[in-house]
Amino acid sequence: MWTVLIVASIALASAEPVTFHGDKVFRAVPQNDEHVELIKSLASYTKLDFWLPDSELLLEVGKAADFRAGYDVAYDIQALFVQNNLPYEIMIDDLQVAMERQLNNNIRSGHSYEKYNELETIYAWSANIAAQNPDLVSRSQIGTSFEGRPIYLLKVGKPGANKNAVFIDCGFHAREWVSPAFCQWFVKEAVNSYGSDAEFTNLLDNLDFYVLPVLNVDGYKYSWTSDRMWRKTRSVNQNTFCTGTDPNRNFAANWGTNGATSSPCSEVYCGTIPESESETRALGDFIRSNLSSIKAYLTVHSYSQMLLFPYSYKHAPAKDYDELMSLAEGAVNALSSLYGTVYTYGPGGKTIYLSSGGSDDWAYDTGIKYSFTFELRDTGKYGFVLPESEIKETCEETMLAVKYISNHVLNNA
Ligand code: ARG
Ligand code: ZN
């Protein structure tokens, strides 16, 4: 009887999307270990949604921590921070307002490169762009999500023998909406530039680009219908009501160690085994079967304006550190040249935080030397609710970095 009631009320609750009225996004900068412990203890008795870093586990002295807190606890948190001399600012005063402002207008008909598109719209777009450019784009399904949705991959390039490839994926984390927007933009640019832009034509003649517009399709769908702040997959975990695994803690890269946990309720839950998720398994399988051609692996996240390369699971430098560092520098310079957007770059463990199970480290250890994680705009003013008005500039500047890396791959791999 009780279970029936509980299940029924959960089903009812999940029918309406979560709202964020009055929720605030804080930026706190812990000055010492006591401050770190204070935030951790807050997180243990009230729901704090960590935006950057992704979990309270990753807090560090001197590094900004962005997190969302409910209206009911926000004032107490501020009082506590003041009392303890913990410097903080409020980045977003009312998340619901910021969220509603993120979408340019309410008339959302059809696909647009300068809007956030719903999953079904992205599915239809990917079918169309392949159908309309059969000589340049083809679509295949590389797997099926936990909830049964197709995971599509676009192959972009002029058919040719023995071509090397650059693999780009978007939409690992559901709430990072600007990421899928970038993958769509990339394909549009390829199609529009072929035959008219010499640089891109050369790249497409000599390389293939595998573009995966949304990996975590269930999570992305859920972030539109139910909880805009959803991050993980939507797989059901045993013996708990908590749902989902962090796909970027789910790869065989020192899996299940630092910056990840085995608690299913955590935002950085690593899953039961590496590639436990159908989505990460599909990605892993595809890359393993195409290892001889794939020379670069680029995975697109947001936010914080960073270009990261291995390692994230340890501090020790990668074998190719020097080359990756100067490639990252060149890519970031290209990116910044357009609008002056400031990016930091370097190995993940030093630049953002130590964390295990990431796809970039896994790809690198699997033999793909040019492995990078992009963290797109912004640096926290809007965070995950980046306004649609910034999609165009974000994608344009990111294109420059991706082309820079691709040219290097073409000339060196
Ligand atoms: N924000 C990303 C994440 O936490 C950063 C990924 C960097 N790479 C890594 N292997 N952790 O998933
Ligand atoms: Zn992410």
Automatic annotation (TrEMBL):
<dbReference type="Pfam" id="PF02244">
    <property type="entry name" value="Propep_M14"/>
</dbReference>
<dbReference type="GO" id="GO:0006508">
    <property type="term" value="P:proteolysis"/>
</dbReference>
<dbReference type="InterPro" id="IPR057247">
    <property type="entry name" value="CARBOXYPEPT_ZN_2"/>
</dbReference>
<dbReference type="Pfam" id="PF00246">
    <property type="entry name" value="Peptidase_M14"/>
</dbReference>
<dbReference type="InterPro" id="IPR000834">
    <property type="entry name" value="Peptidase_M14"/>
</dbReference>
<comment type="similarity">
    <text>Belongs to the peptidase M14 family.</text>
</comment>
<keyword id="KW-0121">Carboxypeptidase</keyword>
<dbReference type="InterPro" id="IPR036990">
    <property type="entry name" value="M14A-like_propep"/>
</dbReference>
<dbReference type="GO" id="GO:0008270">
    <property type="term" value="F:zinc ion binding"/>
</dbReference>
<dbReference type="GO" id="GO:0005615">
    <property type="term" value="C:extracellular space"/>
</dbReference>
<keyword id="KW-1015">Disulfide bond</keyword>
<feature type="active site" description="Proton donor/acceptor">
    <location>
        <position position="375"/>
    </location>
</feature>
<keyword id="KW-0862">Zinc</keyword>
<keyword id="KW-0732">Signal</keyword>
<keyword id="KW-0645">Protease</keyword>
<dbReference type="GO" id="GO:0004181">
    <property type="term" value="F:metallocarboxypeptidase activity"/>
</dbReference>
<keyword id="KW-0482">Metalloprotease</keyword>
<keyword id="KW-0479">Metal-binding</keyword>
<dbReference type="InterPro" id="IPR003146">
    <property type="entry name" value="M14A_act_pep"/>
</dbReference>
<feature type="signal peptide">
    <location>
        <begin position="1"/>
        <end position="15"/>
    </location>
</feature>
<protein>
    <recommendedName>
        <fullName>Carboxypeptidase B</fullName>
        <ecNumber>3.4.17.2</ecNumber>
    </recommendedName>
</protein>
<feature type="domain" description="Peptidase M14">
    <location>
        <begin position="115"/>
        <end position="409"/>
    </location>
</feature>
<keyword id="KW-0378">Hydrolase</keyword>
